[in-house]
Amino acid sequence: xxxxxxxxxIGNNLKTLRGSMSQEELASKMRDSGFKWSKATVWSVxxxxxxxxxxxxxxxxxxxxxxxxxxxxxxxxxxxLAAISMxxxxxxxxxDEILEILDRIxxxxxxxxxxxxxxxxxxxxxxxxxxxxxxxALRRSIPENIFKEYLTxxxxxxxxxxxxxxxxxxFDPSTMTKAIYEQxxxxxxxxxxxxxxxxxxxxDALSDNERLEDLxxxxxxxxxxxxxxxxxxxxx
Length: 236
What we know:
- This protein has helices at residues 5-18, 23-32, 39-46, 54-63, 71-75, 80-121, 128-140, 143-158, 161-170, 174-189, 209-216, 221-227.
- With 236 residues, it is mainly α.
- The longest helix has 42 residues, at 80-121.
């Protein structure tokens, strides 16, 4: 990554924001945050000899106690095009990371459901409390619920009740979520031994938010198990 005039501007901004904190202290705080920084790293950034990555910028501001909404602007007061490029690159990288995490969660959900159903079908069975905790983990990790949990937190913080209502009235990815998991299970079935079947209490409910909510609820758990599908995925 080549050094530009903007790197020198950012370096000067960092030095100003650092104030009386020593370079060694800042480096130590950055190491505690998971970055391999030394006193020499701080010096290089402040001299404009080493570019400051956006992920580092976020962490360094926290280390400096700069947590206001406009703290990043104080540090990255560079040319408009440079700022646009930096944030665009960071957003794309973050989205890619989220997609990778969601992909991993998809696999983990199927594995969890498979193992839970396998335990249910075994002679030992699975305690009801564990079945309910499995249902809650699967319910919470449905993609739309992950996003709703995040959004609910953000809306609660900002108290934008009208936007919250309008959003939930329009946002309905359940059909898409169901299609994704049906396709994923179909692909997975190709690699499953003939004596194994990808159906069961949890595998059949991977994208069924309402069913997982009921299974996770002590008040509804037994009713759902008795009136829903049996452990082999066959209508009872």
